[in-house]
Each structure stands twice: as C-alpha cells, then as structure tokens.
Amino acid sequence: MINLFVNDETSPLKAVILGAAKGVGRTPHFDEAYDPKSKEHIAAGTYPEEEDMIAEIKAFVTVLEKYGVKVYRPEIIEDYNQIFARDIGFVIEDKFIKPTILKDRKEEIKGIQYILDKINTKQIISVPEGIRIEGGDVMPWKDHIFVGYSEKEDFEKYVVARTNKAGLDFLAKEFPNKTIKGFQLNKSDKVAKDNALHLDCCFQPIGNNQAIIYKEGFKFEEDYNYLKDYFGEENLIHISRDEMYEMNSNVFSISPKVVVLEKKFTRLAAILEEKGFTVEKIPYSEISKMEGLLRCSTLPLERTK
User: Fold this and answer.
1) Strand order in the sheet with 138-141
2) Is 22 exposed, middle or buried (0-12, 13-18, 19+ CB in 10 A)?
3) pLDDT average, residue stretch 152-157
4) pLDDT of 76-132, one tens digit each?
5) pLDDT tens, position by position, 38-48
6) Fewest Cβ atoms nearer than 10 Å: which of 62, 97, 171, 212?
7) How many angstroms separate the CA atoms of 283 and 263, rounded?
8) In Å, what is the CA distance from 185 to each residue of 169, 197, 217?
9) Which residues lie closer than 8 Å to 157 by C-beta, 6 or more apart?
C-alpha cells in the first residue's frame, strides 16, 4: 500500500507520480486546444514534438531519482496527453482527491488506476459532479490551503477557468481544520501573457517561508496583499509578465533546499542560488508550450511529515 501525506509544497519528497509524454499523439488542431499558449504554438507550427517531450521528462526522472524519490508513471493510453498529472488528482494530508476536470481529459485517470489501487479506498475522495477543481489551483501550505478559482461570471465565460466557487467550498468542507484561502485569477482564452491558467502559473511557495509570485496574475490586489503579508514582502521573488508566460513560478521543490527549474530561467536560478537553494536545471521548454511546466507534471503522493 502507498502511504499518502502532503501538507505543503516543499517538505522532503518521498513519492510522486510524474506524467508521461509517450503516446501523446499528433499535434491537435487549433480548435481542439483549450489554452491560449497551445493555440499560439499550433498556429506558429512550433507545437512540441513527442520525442522532445519524452526527453525532457526523462531528465526530470533522473533528477528525482538522484534524490531518492520513488517515481510512479502512468500506464500509457495511446493518442492521449498524459503529461500534466497534477490536474487529475492531488493529495492533501492523507487524502487523495479525484477531481472533475475537462471532459476531453476524463480518460486520464485510467492511466494511474494501478496506483490508486494501492491506496486505501477510505483515503480516496471523489469530487461530485458540478464541482470543478484542478490540482494546479490547489496548494496545501501548512495550516492553509491556497486555491485559485473563478466566480460564476468568469467560470462560465472562460475555458481556462478550471476551478469554481463550488470547488473552493468543497475543500473547506473536507478540510475544516485548514484555512481555505481563495484567490481569483486573471483569465484570457486568447492571450497567454494575460492568462493565469492555474494558481501555480502566478504563485508558488518555496523553501520554508518564501514564494515566487506574479502580482498581475491576481484579479484583485487585496489577494496579492494577503500573500505579501503572509510571507513578508522580503520573502517574495517577483517575476515579470514575460517570466510568468515562460512559467517561472511553475518550478518544483524536492525539499526546502532543492528546487527544480527550467534551465533557461537564468535570472530566477541566480536569485535562488544566492538565497542558498540547490537549483537543479533541466530542459523543459518544449513542454512549457502547452501552458504547463514542472509542478503541472507532478502529483506528489508522500512528503515527509
């Protein structure tokens, strides 16, 4: 059986599901894509090739295993994108949450069913119909759960709005011992530089009390101010609009001291190294063309208590 426990974003990682690029299939047609960055690369003829994405994920596996992490991989479903494992499930404390996601991706959960079969069924919570949550919007952080979401008007307007108010309320009901803090994000179905697809596209905690943040990703300044007050302004690393577009906040922590990031994030890497972090740099820029990066590719199962 698999022991589940995740209470934050950075405690030493013991087990994780990492998405798979093998069998991802053809480049989708423009009208099949559901985020503006993918559409941008489809239109430009620069959408990532399967072999390049396989190589990038292989580099990620190498780093994870270097630190003794148990890495689970999905069983391959041919002609199906299984890279972004974070969207199809997430763990909070000792519970595995199976969310409802976009109907075009509903088959993805089958690829990790063999892993779910190793988890006590009492620890698996299925999100009811009508409640939408994706793991990229959900960040357990000690006594908090930070959640990116959209109120009804934006949720019904934008395809890129993935977590609704009902999702926020669901988490509050399931985890009454936590402070559930929701943040409305700026959305755009057409302009990738104006779109915070998930919370981890504009914010992510690192270390013990620091965070990477893109202020303009938040619809309301008061939400940004909440995080500034919580972490302390001196503990925030601000990124630019272009850096948000390249997904600089979507890094992945193996421990409070070890952070994995895309090798082209040179400014961020220099800041982190100056702060004393060990920075593992890997190629991941092809995968980033689908508006997801390192955190999006992972589904942590167990971190040290």
Assistant:
1) 138-141, 144-149, 179-184
2) middle
3) 96
4) 998 888 999 998 999 999 999 998 766 667 788 899 999 999 999 999 999 998 899
5) 999 999 999 99
6) 62
7) 6
8) 17, 8, 6
9) 187
The residues near 37 (Cβ < 8 Å, ≥ 6 apart) are: 192, 195, 245, 288, 289, 290, 291
Strand partners, 148: 183
Edge-to-edge, what's the strand order for the sheet holding 298-303? 70-72, 13-18, 298-303
H-helix segments, the chain = 36-44, 50-66, 113-116, 152-157, 165-174, 221-231, 241-245, 266-274, 285-288, 294-297
For residue range 161-185, what is the model confidence (pLDDT) as tens digits? 999 999 999 999 999 999 999 999 9
Pairing of the two strands 252-253 and 258-262: antiparallel
Residue with the two structure tokens 């004393």: 276
Contact (CB, 8 A) for 147 and 199: yes
pLDDT over threshold 90, residue 153? yes
- Number of helical (H) and strand (E) elements in the chain, helices listed first: 10, 15
Outline where 91-163 has alpha helix (H).
113-116, 152-157
Note the pLDDT of residue 31: 87
The owner of tokens 């990532």 is 48
305: its two tokens = 């208590």
Yes or no: say if 302 and 4 are a contact pair by the CB < 8 Å rule. yes
Half-sphere exposure of 287 (CA within 13 A, CB side): 35
Mean pLDDT score, 68-72: 98
pLDDT of residue 107: 83
In the numeric block, the tokens 């590719």 are attached to 297
- Report residue 260: phi and psi, to 5°: -100, 130
Run of H or E residues at 138: strand 138-141
Rama region for 113: left / alpha / beta (φ>0; ψ in -120 to 50; rest):
alpha
